[in-house]
Write a structure and sequence with these properties.
5 helices; 133 residues; 69% helix
Amino acid sequence: MTTEEEFDRQEAEYEKQVEERTLSPKATELIQSLNDFVNSGGSHRELQKIAKSLAQRPQHRTLQQSIVKLFIMSLEEMANLPENATDARNKESRLIATQMIEGFKKVRSEFDSELHGRPINDAALPSQYIPFV
């Protein structure tokens, strides 16, 4: 590979990485709204009301599934953080997320073993089992 080809490859890889990290304006607004709500004193009770509303409110079932997938993907990302990326303020979130993901993998492996006689995919994440409809 020539130096120019290597440069082009590296540039394409960099552009791909930037694209993967770039959020749409709506996604940025959603994250900011969540941060603002929680930062302005969103109480445990208020969080419970929101969770209940998202689960029980008459919504389009596809939207409901996509919301759950988003929250599960957030747990997966939290569980995937290196230990040194947390401190006393969020270490329990990482620990619980890790335990939830590992628990899912264990139960899913047992289920697959019963159904198919063997585990299908030990590395599968919960969000991979929630399709976009």
